[in-house]
Amino acid sequence: MDDDLRARIEGGTAFARTLGATLVEVADGSAVLRLDAAPELHNHVGGPHAATLFGLGETAAAAVVITVFADLVDAGAVPLIKSAAIDYTAIATGVVLASAHLAGDGGDGVRESVATRGVAVFPVEVVFRREDDGVETATMTAQMALKQR
Questions:
Q1: ∠141-13-7 over CA atoms, to 5°?
Q2: Which residues of the chain fall below pLDDT 50?
Q3: 5-40 burial, b if ≥16 CB within 10 A, otherwise e?
Q4: Are 40 and 34 in contact (CB under 8 A)?
Q5: Which of 29, 58, 111, 112 is deepest in the core (most CB within 10 A)?
């Protein structure tokens, strides 16, 4: 994994830097981020706050967009989150991993839509797990967009 990609994902926005997630791996339309949340990002039960997990999921989804569509982003397309649904299923404690992958056709339809309409909306699926025991704590579907400027 190159340092430029890591810098774009981990430090590309002020929020990503505040969140402090680190990129663990990227491969074929997927990305895994790791979050050892600082205490100020915890909730009343001692784990990452729900909003922190949502932010981790959005960051993981953006990582997928940046890796799969780096050429379009470099050409001026802006990755954005359009909407998201998250289902919290267990309490997240300790270090959390967010595994995200591009759902659907692998990106061909996205590329066509950006080329013809200037925008594409597509799903990225995210699964959250506690690092220590692998328990799934949440799932998220992020509707991501790529929009030409």
A1: 95
A2: none
A3: beebbbeeeeebeebebebeebeebbbbbbbebeee
A4: no
A5: 58
